[in-house]
Structures are given as structure tokens and as C-alpha cells.
Amino acid sequence: MRDGHIERLIQLLARLPGLGPRSARRAALHLVKRRDTLLEPLARALNAVADAVRPCSTCGNLDAVDPCGVCVDGRRDPSRICVVEEVADLWALERAGVFRGRYQVLGGTLSALDGIGPEDLNIASLIARARKPEVREIILALNATVDGQTTTHYIHDCLAACDVDVSQLAHGVPVGGELDYLDDGTIGAALKSRRRM
Asked: Which domains are present in the chain?
């Protein structure tokens, strides 16, 4: 029989992406066994994040300052805004080190099944930013899912009245990918996104 505190820890850990009940039990046991070196420092780190980190009022990124470090970085190109679904997508682009503009985090995608409409996402603030004279390009970097593509088309239509170029990430064969292992949708997208050499 487990203690109620440990059971609560297991239940909370099981809510994390990628952790099911069994993995959560193993993680909880590991944390409790390493109270001084892992559990207590983790608890302090979680409290510090809960107290300090907030969404940026400009772009939706997470940071301890508002506006966030990306928005105030003078070395970034203010004329380009890359639109992503979630902060994790922003972090992935930053890890790649290939984009030096600004971002807009939508906070999800449109989904009729889940009851998520345009008012539930950061689309209105994106349109307001797109109307600023320094903004020249909006890059739609949404996932290649049905909801991601629906959101991409919706935003593209909303931006039609703004004086900005709208582009979308290319979809297709990944670097190192082999055609024989790709699904039909990826192969089709790669053919449609082909470019002259």
C-alpha cells in the first residue's frame, strides 16, 4: 500500500506527456529515493518557475521577463514573424538556429472537435502585429496536421488585408529520409513543394 502523498505524486507525474502510470510510478520512486540530490532541488526549481515564468504579452513565449528576451533582442529582424503553435515549436526553431526574426505563439490550433475557435488562440494579436509598418513577412510554421493546416488557411485569409508577405514552411522529404519509408502524404507534399535547381 502506497502513502497518499506518493500516490498524489504518481498521479501528477502520469499527467505529463510521455509518462503513463507505470513510468510515473518508476519516476516517483526514483525521486523519493534521491530526496536530497533530486526531489528537493526539483521541488525548488518547480516553485521558482511557478513564481517567475509567465507568457510574453507580445508573442506568447514563456520567460521571466515581459516582453520576453526574444522580443527585446535588438539583433533580431523585426520585419519577420514566425507563427508557431506552441512554445515547444519556438524552442525547436531556436535550437536549430536558423531563424533570427520574432515569433508569435498561437497557443494551439483551431479544432471544431475540441471547441477551439479563433478567439481561443493568439490570432487577433498576430493580425495587430502584422499591421505594424515594420513587419514585412509572416511565416506560418504550423504542424502538418489537419488542424494545423486548417489554422494555416484561416490565418492566411485573415492576413489578406495586411500589407505583408505570407509564407509557409515547406513539407516533404526530411534530410536523410528515404522515399520507400515515407507515407503517401509526405511524398505528395514533397512533389508539390519541389523547386527548380
From this structure: 4-52 (1.10.8.420), 62-168 (3.40.1360.10)
